[in-house]
């Protein structure tokens, strides 16, 4: 769904970095490079990004009118 605003493990704010992360990936950077550029160093926060599946657009197609 939507990435959590804060890391579930350590509580750091990560929600604001999701869009820049996706932008870096679309520019051809690897996930490691994108996370390094954004300064996300702890593995709990990195896991939140790497395991995130963005389903919002798929789900919104099935929204009841
Ligand atoms: Zn964390």
Care to describe what's here?
The chain is 45% helix and 0% strand. The longest helix is centred in the middle third of the chain and has 9 residues, at 18-26. The radius of gyration is 13 Å and the shape is globular. It starts with 17 loop residues before the first helix and ends in a 5-residue tail after the last helix. With 65 residues, the chain is mainly α. It has a single domain (15-60), classed as Arc Repressor Mutant, subunit A (Orthogonal Bundle), CATH 1.10.10. The protein binds zinc ion.
List the helices and strands and how they pair.
Layout: H1 18-26, H2 31-37, H3 43-50, H4 56-60
Helix pairs in contact: 1-2
The chain binds zinc ion (ZN).
Residues 7, 9-10, 12, 42, 44-45 line the site of zinc ion (ZN).
Whole-number average pLDDT?
Answer: 93
Bound molecules: zinc ion
| Number of E-state strands | 0
The fraction of residues in strands falls at: under 5%
The SSE order reads: HHHH
Instruction: Give the overall shape, derived from the CA principal axes.
Output: globular
SS field, number of helical segments: 4
The stretches of 5 or more residues where confidence is low (pLDDT under 50) are: none
C-alpha-based Rg, rounded: 13 Å
The CATH class turns out to be Mainly Alpha
CATH architecture: Orthogonal Bundle
Biggest sheet features? none
- Say which CATH homologous superfamily is assigned: Homeodomain-like
Whole-number tally of structural domains:
1
C-alpha termini separation: 20 Å
Query: Structural class from helices and strands?
Result: mainly alpha
Q: Return the CATH topology.
A: Arc Repressor Mutant, subunit A
Q: Helix proportion of residues, in percent?
A: 40-55%
């Amino acid at each position: 769904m939507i990435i959590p605003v804060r890391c579930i493990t350590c509580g750091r704010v990560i929600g604001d970095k999701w869009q820049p992360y996706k932008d870096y990936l679309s520019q051809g950077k690897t996930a490691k490079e994108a996370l390094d550029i954004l300064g996300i160093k702890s593995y709990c926060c990195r896991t939140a990004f790497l395991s995130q599946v963005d389903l919002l657009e798929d789900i919104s197609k099935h929204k009841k009118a």
